[in-house]
Amino acid sequence: MPDFLGDPRALLVLVIAGFLPNEVWRMLGLWFGGGLDEGSELLVWVRAVATAILAGVIAQILLQPPGALASVQDWLRYGAVAAGFAAFMVTKRSIFAGVVGGEMVMLAGKGWFG
Asked: Were 80 and a residue from 65, 95, 102, 112 both cysteine, which residue would form a disulfide, CB within 3.0 to 4.6 Å?
């Protein structure tokens, strides 16, 4: 197995302990939620709670970065978030474009400024 993938046993544990349990809940959510009205008050509330949790996680990562992200300068982390948000808005709210845009700024800045 190629070296960049790491230890195959660790990958197996990651799939069994991380991926599979999450997929069960996602599939159950699709099955149970398939007939719900997207504009219902319950789903509006669920979306609001999910958005608030995501905002909290992003704020925590920005203010108290974990692991290798702690070695990235504050201004670069904030700039990457701003660039990701700008890409998100310019591309008519494409989450993929926002993530890629922020990641590109983060990688370019880390490459240029170390």
From this structure: 102
For residues 88 and 102, give the distance between their C-alpha atoms in angstroms, rounded to a whole number. Answer: 9
List, for residues 65-82, the tens digit of each pLDDT value: 998 889 899 999 999 999
Distance CA 28, CA 18 (A): 17
Residues 81 and 74: their CA atoms lie apart, in Å, by 11
Residue 91 φ/ψ, nearest 5 degrees: -95, 30
Interaxial angle between packed helices 74-90 and 41-63, expressed in degrees from 0 to 180 and rounded to the nearest 10? 150
The answer to whether 58 and 81 have CB atoms below 8 angstroms apart is: yes
Which has more confidence, 114 or 86?
Answer: 86
Cβ-based neighbour number of residue 35 at 10 Å: 6
Q: Has this prediction a pTM greater than 0.70? A: no
Which backbone phi and psi does 2 adopt, to 5 degrees? -60, 150
